[in-house]
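Sharing a chain and its predicted structure for anyone who wants a worked example. Both blocks are below, sequence first, C-alpha cells second.
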Amino acid sequence: MVLRRILALAVALALAWAGHGGALAADAGRMVKTWVPPYAIAASQERLGERYGGVGPADALTHLGLQFWVPSASGGLERSSRYGAIGDGQIAAFTTWGKANGVKVMLTVYNGEWGWDWALAKNAFGANRAAFVDALVAEMQALGLDGIDIDLEGAGMDPTAEDKAEYVAFIRALRKRLRPLGKELVLDSFSYVWNAPNTTWWPDLLPLVDGLVSMGYQEIGRGAPSWQSYAWQRKAAGKHARKLLLGMPSDRDAWLGKTVVQQLAWVLPAERKVGVAIWDAQNPSAAWRTKAVWKRLKTIREQ
C-alpha cells in the first residue's frame, strides 16, 4: 500500500511538472546540467518543479543526472542503496518530466557511496570493462534514459599512466556503444592536474564525449587567479570549449568574491561557448531560487 502511494505521488508530480511546458529545444543551445543525489530525491523533485517569476529549472536545464548507480564489487552495475531502495517508478517520474520539458535525463554512475573508492571504479572500468559497459548500456535502455554520465572519481590520489589509459579506453568503448543509439556521454573531471580524471586527460577525453564537467564548484570562478579562473578552464578545453560545463555550487550565494549572478554573467555572452553544471538540484541557497539566476540559465540554454 505504501509503495502504491509513493508511485502514485511520483506520477502525479511528473504530470504536474509537465504542465510547466519548458522549451523543447535543448539541443539548440549550450548545456545546463544538474544532478539528483540519491539522498535527496524528494527535495530535488520539489525544486525541479518550482518557478521564480515565470522561469525555473524546466525552462533552463538541458541535462539532469540521476546519481543513482554505483559499480558493483564484481565489476558490474547496481543501484545505490545506502539511502534506501530506488525504484523504477521514481526514475520514471524524472524521465517523464524530462521528456515534457526537453531535458535529457542521464544515468549517473559514481563511486562515492561509501567514500570515493578508486579501486572499486577501476575494477569496473579496467578489469571488467566490457561487462561494465554492457551493464551501463542495458540499464540505460531498459529505463528509457537519454545517456550516461560518468562520475568516477579518484580523489586524494596521484593517478598513474595506467589509470589514465584504462579510463580513456573505457570512455572510448562506451562512446562506441552509445553513438549508434543516439545517446549522449558526459563525464565529470577534476579542475586541475590533481586526482583522476583531471585536466591533463582532457585532450584525450574531450573528443570522445558530448560534455565534460569541470568540478571546481566554489574553487573556480570569475576573475580567480591562474587555473581557478573560468577563463583558464575554457582555454584548457581549447576547440572543445562548447563541451565544457563549469561546475557551480548551489549551496553558495557567492564564492571567490562574486555572487551567483556575477558568476553567471561571465558565462552569459554567447562567445564564451561553455555551459554550466550545478551541484545539486536541491538548490539549498536562496540565491539559486530567483528569477535572475534562472533567466540567465535559460538564456545560456537557448544560445
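Comments welcome. The first helix runs from residue 2 to 18.
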